[in-house]
C-alpha cells in the first residue's frame, strides 16, 4: 500500500489508503511537502515522546462514508496543512506554537456538499482522565463514569465548550459551530449539525455545517499551569467579588417549604421564625407564584395585599427581600394580550412571536437580543425595586424554552440569547442570581447549579462536589448551590443524617467561591433540637473561617484561579487525578466530606506537605492515603490544613 508523510510543526502526518495519522514528537522534523498522498484522512493520533505510546486519537471525517472519493490535492505552506477531497470537502490543520506552555492545532472541516453533519470522535488511553464539558444532572469528576448521549450543546444548564485531559491535552470548540456532543467511557464525539436542530434558524443560508475546534498540547508544564494559562487566553476572569454579604450570611428561600402556595403571611412568619431561632440570614428569597399572572409584573393582591409594608417590616429586621424572575410572558397575562408589546418577544420562523411551553403554561419569551425589550424588562423590575424589593433571582433562560426555528432580533448563535439575558440580569448589581451562562465569567454575580434531589445518590449530595469543580474549571467561580437538603420534590423529605452531612459539607466551606453562598428552605428546627444544635455549631465554626474564605475569594480575583480546586491542583498522583469527593481551598486546605449514607469514616488522599486534621489535631505527611474518623454529630466535615 502506498504511504507517505508530511510534517506540520511537531506533527508527523502519515497518509495511507483511508488513513491519516498525525504523531506528535518533541523533536522537530523537517517538512517534506512534496510527498504523494493516497486515500482519505480518517484519523489523527498523538504520541508523547516520554512513553512513545498513543495518548490521543481523533477519528476524523466520520461523516464521509463514500470510500470511492480520493484526495484531490494537498498543500503545506508554513504552518497550514490543507487537504482537498474531490467532492469539495476540505480539511485544514493550522499549527501555532507562539505560546510558551502549549502548542495549538486548529482543525477545521468544510464542505460544499450538504452533509447532514460533520463529525470527529476523540479517544484517549485507559490512564487518561477527562474534565469539563456540560453540566449534567448526575455529574461526575472526572468524566470516566459519565454517559452523555448526543445532544445539541446549548445553554440549557450547560457550560462552555471546553474539555481538559489529564494527559495535558485540551479541546475547545468556538461558539459559531452548531455543536452536538456525546461522551461515553473516555470517548468524546464532536458533531456539527444544522438540520433538525435548534441551530437551523441561524444558518438558513449555509449549505453544510462547518466543524472546527482547537486541540491544545501542553509542553513542559503541570496540568495546573497548562489549564491556568489556557483558560486565561480563552476567557475573561472575574476581577471583583460579588456581594460579600451573601458570603457572610445565608439565603433563605420560600421555594422548597412553601412552593407556589406562598403568601405575604408566610414570608413574614418564616422570617420571624428564622430570627426566633437565632439563625443567621442575609436575605429572604420569594420564589414562584407571587404575580397575578406569569409575565405581569404585578403582585397578586389576594396573596400579597401590601408588599411595601412587607418589605418595610423585613428591613426593620435587617432582612433583604429578593424576587424570583423569569423571561416568560404567559398568553393569558395582560402583557401577553397587549399587541403593542409583541415586537419585544422572540420570533419563530414565520416572523411572529413564538409560543412556547414552560413549566407554568404557554408563553411568549422576551427577546433579550433586542435593546428595546431589555429596556422594557428593566423598567418593570425597577418598579419592583420601588416597592422595596432588594434584588432578583433570574430563572430559566435556556434555549430549550425558545420557539422552534427561533429567530432573534440580533445575534449569530442561539447562545447569544442566553448571554444577553445574563448581562441584563447583571445590570441589577452583584447580588443577583442566574442559572444560565455563556461567556459571562467576568461578571461578579452568582451562578446557580441544577436542582438537587433530597438523596445521597441519583442527583443528590454526592454530585455537588463534581458540579462545583466543573463550574470552576469553566471559570464560574461564584456558584450558588441548591437548597441544603435538596428540593424535596414529590414530598421526599431529606433524612436527618443526610441533612447533617449536607450542612457539614456545604454550609461550612461553600460560603465562598463557586458555591459562594449557602441556601436554606427546609429549616433545621423542622427536625429536632439535636439538628438545631449542630446547625448553630456549624454556623459558629463558619464564622471563624469567614476571613480566610473571603480573602481566598479576593485572591482568586487577582490570580484568576478558582478558590475551590480539584485535588490535582496540588498533585498529579493518579489518586488525585481521579478524586471527585475531595477539594482544595486556596492550596492550604483540603476538605473531604462524608457523602455516603451510614459512613463514620473515610479514605483521604493527602498530597505533599504536612497536614493537620481539624478533628484530632494529628498531623500527617503527604503524599499518603489514610482512613480518618468522621463522626456524624460534629461541627465540620473532615478537613486538613497545611502547616508545613
UniProtKB/TrEMBL annotation:
Coiled-coil residues are none
Key words, A-Z: Glycosidase, Hydrolase
Name of a matching Pfam family: Glyco_hydro_31_2nd
A GO biological process of this protein is:
carbohydrate metabolic process
Which InterPro entries does the protein's record reference?
Answer: Alpha-glycosidase_related (IPR050985), GH (IPR017853), Glyco_hydro_31_C (IPR048395), Glyco_hydro_31_TIM (IPR000322), Glyco_hydro_b (IPR013780)
MF (Gene Ontology): hydrolase activity, hydrolyzing O-glycosyl compounds
Domain Glycoside hydrolase family 31 TIM barrel: start-end pairs? 254-550
Q: Where is the Glycosyl hydrolase family 31 C-terminal domain?
A: 560-637
User: Transmembrane helix among the record's keywords?
Assistant: no
Q: Which PANTHER family match?
A: GLYCOSIDASE FAMILY 31, MYOGENESIS-REGULATING GLYCOSIDASE
- What is stated as this protein's family in its record? Belongs to the glycosyl hydrolase 31 family.
Query: What name is this protein filed under?
Result: Gal_mutarotas_2 domain-containing protein
Lineage of the organism: Eukaryota, Metazoa, Ecdysozoa, Nematoda, Chromadorea
Amino acid at each position: 500500500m502506498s504511504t507517505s508523510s508530511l510534517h506540520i510543526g511537531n506533527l508527523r502526518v502519515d497518509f495511507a489508503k483511508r488513513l491519516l495519522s498525525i504523531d506528535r514528537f518533541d523533536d522537530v522534523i523537517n517538512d517534506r511537502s512534496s510527498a504523494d498522498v493516497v486515500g482519505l484522512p480518517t484519523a489523527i493520533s498523538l504520541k508523547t515522546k516520554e512513553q512513545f505510546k498513543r495518548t490521543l486519537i481523533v477519528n476524523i471525517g466520520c461523516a464521509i462514508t463514500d470510500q470511492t472519493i480520493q484526495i484531490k490535492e494537498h498543500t503545506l505552506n508554513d504552518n497550514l496543512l490543507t487537504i482537498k477531497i474531490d467532492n469539495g470537502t476540505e480539511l485544514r490543520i493550522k499549527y501555532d506554537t507562539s505560546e510558551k506552555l502549549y502548542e495549538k492545532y486548529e482543525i477545521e472541516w468544510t464542505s460544499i456538499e450538504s452533509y447532514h453533519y460533520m463529525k470527529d470522535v476523540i479517544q484517549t488511553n485507559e490512564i487518561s482522565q477527562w474534565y469539563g464539558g456540560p453540566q449534567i444532572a448526575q455529574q461526575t469528576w472526572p468524566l470516566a463514569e459519565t454517559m452523555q448521549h448526543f445532544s445539541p450543546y446549548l445553554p440549557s444548564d450547560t457550560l462552555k465548550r471546553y474539555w481538559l485531559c489529564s494527559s495535558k491535552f485540551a479541546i475547545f470548540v468556538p461558539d459559531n459551530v452548531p455543536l452536538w456532543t456525546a461522551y461515553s467511557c473516555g470517548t468524546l464525539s464532536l458533531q456539527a449539525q444544522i438540520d433538525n436542530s435548534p441551530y437551523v434558524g441561524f444558518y438558513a443560508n449555509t449549505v453544510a455545517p462547518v466543524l472546527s475546534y482547537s486541540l491544545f498540547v501542553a509542553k513542559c508544564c503541570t496540568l495546573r499551569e497548562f489549564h491556568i494559562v489556557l483558560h486565561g487566553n480563552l476567557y475573561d476572569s472575574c476581577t471583583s467579588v460579588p456581594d460579600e454579604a451573601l458570603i457572610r450570611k445565608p439565603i433563605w428561600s420560600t421555594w422548597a417549604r412553601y412552593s407556589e402556595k406562598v403568601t405575604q403571611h408566610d414570608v413574614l412568619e418564616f422570617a420571624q421564625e428564622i430570627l426566633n431561632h437565632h439563625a443567621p440570614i442575609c436575605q429572604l428569597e420569594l420564589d414562584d407564584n407571587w404575580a397575578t399572572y406569569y409575565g405581569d409584573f404585578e403582585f397578586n393582591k389576594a396573596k400579597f395585599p401590601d408588599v411595601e409594608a412587607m418589605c418595610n417590616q423585613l428591613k426593620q429586621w435587617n432582612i433583604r427581600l429578593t424576587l424570583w424572575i423569569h423571561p416568560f410572558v404567559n398568553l393569558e397575562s395582560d402583557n401577553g394580550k397587549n399587541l403593542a408589546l409583541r415586537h419585544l418577544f422572540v420570533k419563530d420562523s414565520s416572523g411572529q412571536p413564538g409560543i412556547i411551553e414552560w413549566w407554568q403554561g404557554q408563553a411568549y419569551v422576551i427577546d433579550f437580543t433586542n435593546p428595546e425589550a431589555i429596556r422594557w424588562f428593566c423598567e418593570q423590575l425597577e418598579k419592583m425595586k420601588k416597592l422595596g424589593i432588594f434584588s432578583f433571582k433570574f430563572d430559566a433562560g435556556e434555549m430549550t424554552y425558545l420557539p422552534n426555528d427561533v429567530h432573534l432580533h440580533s445575534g449569530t448563535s442561539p447562545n447569544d440569547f442566553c448571554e444577553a439575558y445574563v448581562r441584563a440580569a447583571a445590570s441589577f448589581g452583584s447580588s443577583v442570581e442566574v442559572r444560565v451562562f455563556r461567556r459571562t465569567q467576568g461578571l461578579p454575580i452568582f451562578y446557580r447549579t441544577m436542582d438537587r434531589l433530597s438523596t445521597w445518590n441519583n442527583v443528590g449530595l454526592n454530585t455537588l462536589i463534581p458540579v462545583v469543580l466543573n463550574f470552576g474549571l469553566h471559570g464560574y467561580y461564584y456558584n450558588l448551590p441548591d437548597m441544603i437538603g435538596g428540593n424535596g420534590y414529590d414530598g421526599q423529605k431529606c433524612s436527618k443524617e443526610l441533612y447533617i452531612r449536607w450542612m457539614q459539607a456545604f454550609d461550612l466551606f461553600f460560603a465562598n467561591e463557586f458555591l459562594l453562598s449557602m441556601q436554606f428552605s427546609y429549616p433545621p428546627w423542622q427536625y429536632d433540637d439535636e439538628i438545631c444544635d449542630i446547625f448553630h455549631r456549624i454556623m459558629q465554626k463558619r464564622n471563624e473561617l469567614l476571613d480566610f474564605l473571603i480573602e481566598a475569594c479576593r485572591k482568586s480575583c487577582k490570580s484568576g484561579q478558582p478558590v475551590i480546586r480539584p485535588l490535582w491542583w496540588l498533585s498529579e498522583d493518579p489518586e488525585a487525578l481521579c478524586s471527585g469527593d475531595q477539594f482544595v481551598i486556596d492550596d492550604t486546605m483540603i476538605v473531604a466530606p462524608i457523602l455516603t449514607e451510614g459512613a463514620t469514616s473515610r479514605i483521604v488522599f493527602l498530597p505533599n506537605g504536612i497536614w493537620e486534621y481539624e478533628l484530632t489535631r494529628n498531623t500527617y505527611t503527604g503524599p499518603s492515603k489514610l482512613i480518618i474518623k468522621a463522626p456524624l454529630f460534629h461541627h465540620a466535615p473532615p478537613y486538613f490544613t497545611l502547616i508545613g
